[in-house]
Design goal:
By secondary structure, the chain is α/β, with parallel strands linked by helices. The chain has twelve helices and twelve strands. The strands form two sheets. Strands 1, 2, 9, 10, 11 and 12 form a six-stranded mixed beta sheet that branches. It has a six-stranded mixed beta sheet with strand order 4-3-5-8-6-7, with helices on both faces.
Length: about 375
């Protein structure tokens, strides 16, 4: 917005249009155009329950690796559904989301979006391994790691990391800070250690350890996440075990136990309940909190509107002007919760607005 240099005829006409808008009681301006107010949600309403996303790898036309008698996509789904039952039995009250619950293709970006949009606490991607030659055996657990090693060096990783550039741009919106990434990396490593330890203790074959890998499905998560290779379908004995009822029970039990250990050690259930209680005590209820909307009022004039805007106004994301009787109220931002508006106040003050106030405004809906 460059409204502080009223030199051209266009600017004079623009100011006239603004004044005409005031006479109609409400006008929103941004680069001379009427635009919808931006939505700002810096604070999420806390979920009192632990949310776990289980991600059965592959699906639909993407079969994954193939054993002697089975396709990875089918095995992954069987394990995920069994794991859901085991977790629900072992940890009552948690919310479990599957990125797919049928033989359907789900893109990598969609899997990440499901996890991030559900504000999950944990993410487990379920896979099986394969080796073209030899008789490899064992389980392994992957985390995104610091450098995403080998992400572009092997055809396997290239195939399982392809993502459309437009989808990648979408995933990179609202990035988290490096400090938050380091916290999540530490949590993911802790979860990986618990997963691999439990697989080692409960399955009849060796653990191949924890590996850093540049899997797309892990790189853009906003919660602790791991990708688990439960075993090798290329190994006949291991494929038979994984597909057996005994194997499914033991694998799901091992994974559920590791999740339970992580939740217990981090006191996650109590921490989430406490966060929700604090929220409710402050705002009354989640319902009233959602239904209220807010803006930041930065100036009130009486009698006539401003015809000159100082340079500091250019740094506002929007200006929202309301006329009531002979008063003009200048507001910025549109927030669907009070805390988000409160978080924006220091930035408004730093621009040079002395006494910004949070006010209730009508909902856009």
């Amino acid at each position: 917005m460059k409204l502080h240099k009223p030199q051209s005829l266009l600017r004079i006409l623009s100011l006239f249009c603004i004044f005409l808008g005031f006479c109609l009681n409400i006008y929103a301006i941004n680069e001379y155009n009427v635009n919808p107010l931006p939505t700002s949600n810096n604070i999420d309403i806390p979920n009192p329950n632990v949310v776990i996303v289980l991600d059965p790898g592959h699906g639909g036309y993407d079969k994954g690796c193939t054993g002697h008698k089975s396709h990875e996509k089918d095995v992954n789904l069987l394990i995920a559904k069994k794991l859901r039952q085991s977790i629900e039995y072992m940890i009552p009250g948690v919310e479990i989301i599957l990125t797919r619950d049928s033989d359907s293709f789900v893109s990598l970006e969609k899997r990440v979006q499901i996890a991030n949009q559900s504000k999950a606490d944990l993410f487990l991607s379920i896979h099986c391994n394969s080796l073209a030659e030899g008789h490899a055996t064992g389980s392994e657990t992957h985390i995104a790691g610091l450098d995403f090693v080998n992400a572009d060096q092997h055809e396997y990783l290239k195939r399982h990391n392809f993502i459309h550039p437009d989808a990648l741009k979408e995933l990179k919106k609202n990035p988290i800070s490096n400090a938050e990434k380091m916290v999540l990396l530490k949590q993911s490593l802790d979860l990986a250690e618990m997963v691999q330890s439990s697989l080692h203790d409960n399955l009849p074959y060796k653990s191949r350890g924890i590996k850093e890998s540049g899997f797309t499905v892990l790189k853009y998560l906003k919660m602790a996440g791991v990708l688990v290779e439960v075993g090798f379908l290329s190994n006949k004995n291991q494929e038979q075990y994984i597909n057996s009822e005994k194997g499914l029970e033991e694998i799901s039990y091992a994974l559920a136990s590791s999740v339970n250990t992580f939740i217990t050690d981090t006191n996650l259930i109590e921490r989430k309940k406490e966060a929700y209680k604090t929220f409710v005590s402050k705002f009354g209820s989640a319902r009233s909190f959602i239904e209220e909307t807010y803006s930041i009022e930065i100036l009130i004039t009486k009698g006539s509107p401003l015809l000159y805007f100082e340079p500091k106004w250019d740094n506002l994301e929007s200006i929202y002007i309301v006329k009531e009787n002979d008063h003009y109220f200048y507001r910025t931002g549109y927030f669907t919760n009070y805390q988000a508006a409160q978080n924006a106040l220091p930035g408004i003050q730093q621009l040079g607005f002395d006494n910004p106030q949070i006010v209730n405004v009508p909902s856009k809906n």
